[in-house]
Design goal:
Blueprint lengths: L2 H17 L1 H8 L5 H20 L8 H24 L5 H9 L1 H13 L5 H18 L8 H24 L5 H27 L7 H9 L2 H25 L5 H8 L2 H13 L5 H30 L1
Helix pairs in contact: 1-11, 1-12, 1-13, 2-11, 3-9, 3-11, 4-8, 4-9, 5-7, 5-8, 6-8, 6-12, 7-14, 8-12, 9-11, 12-14
Length: about 300
């Protein structure tokens, strides 16, 4: 199996993991403030990551810490914006806006790396955007702060995907480097989240001990923190950091745009939620756009060669 194919399969796998987080986090936010939730999520991820990868920090260079800080800052602020915004917007709008990172990633990719985006990837991005709009049917008749926060999050995801590629592409020690970068991201994100909690939530809510006492009594919170810390962070982030370099930022963004489609498929399988014609049409467009970006160039070359 080619490295790029393996990478795309693994990126699709973590998109499936992330697909479930919209509903899980949305339910948890009824019992816990968003910044405190994010701080707990990445505190647990940092502890688990230290047990698994702590030995690699011994060899970490100043460059590793700087790269970890950059990715951690983008990663952390992105998660804070998305989690906070999810309180004030709908799951449909949040999933659509988050999926719009597929628009921002090629722009950031070109500005940062000065590498052209292929014609078929540009076409794929356009088709995916149309498909996401049809599929989620977001109501933008009244924009709110949650929507704006999520838009900023989508921009940051585009930057994050690009810089993950920049920091890992030429690494010879990719396994150790990925472990270090992943762990450092968690640590910096945890710190940023705790600072946000202290500044914006602690003074208007209960203290940490009271919040923890309330949180551990809520089943939705326990499920959400466990799922997002272990599967959504430790496993998924390491896979992305390790394998995305064998794909490309634009292809990764196209694959991640499948999240709302996968989430709805899971809802159909698990809770028997029905699909309408709009969802089927939107899903068809998204899948077509992803395929156009993935294999469109090969199809064109195949038919051109035959002529």
């Amino acid at each position: 199996m080619q490295k790029s194919t393996r990478a795309d399969i693994l990126l699709l796998t973590i998109a499936m993991v992330w697909a479930a987080t919209f509903i899980i986090i949305k339910n948890a936010l009824d019992d816990i403030p968003p910044f405190f939730f994010t701080a707990l999520r990445f505190l647990i991820a940092s502890i688990i990551g230290t047990f698994i990868w702590g030995k690699y920090l011994v060899k970490a260079s100043v460059k590793d810490y700087m790269q970890g800080a950059v990715l951690g800052a983008i990663f952390g602020i992105g998660f804070l914006l998305q989690t906070w915004g999810l309180q004030y917007t709908t799951i449909a709008k949040s999933s659509f806006i988050t999926g719009s990172m597929v628009i921002f990633t090629p722009i950031v990719y070109y500005l940062v790396e000065r590498r052209p985006v292929s014609l078929m990837q540009k076409i794929g991005v356009c088709i995916v955007t149309i498909g996401l709009w049809i599929f989620t049917d977001p109501d933008f008749s009244s924009m709110n702060y949650g929507d704006i926060a999520t838009i900023l999050c989508a921009v940051l995801w585009g930057i994050y995907i690009t810089f993950t590629d920049v920091f890992t592409r030429d690494r010879n020690d990719i396994i150790e480097a990925s472990a270090r970068l992943t762990l450092l991201q968690f640590i910096f994100t945890c710190i940023i989240s705790y600072i946000a909690y202290t500044l914006f939530e602690y003074r208007i809510g209960a203290g940490i001990s009271q919040l923890i006492q309330k949180s551990v009594s809520a089943q939705d919170v326990l499920i959400a923190i466990s799922y997002t810390a272990i599967l959504g962070s430790v496993i998924a982030t390491y896979i992305q950091t390790r394998w995305q370099r064998d794909s490309s930022p634009v292809r990764a963004a196209l694959i991640f745009s499948l999240e709302p489609i996968i989430a709805s498929m899971l809802a159909f399988i698990i809770i028997k939620e029905e699909f309408g014609m709009r969802e089927l049409l939107g899903g068809f467009f998204v899948l077509s756009g992803v395929l156009a970006g993935e294999i469109g160039e090969y199809i064109i070359k195949f038919f051109t060669a035959k002529k």
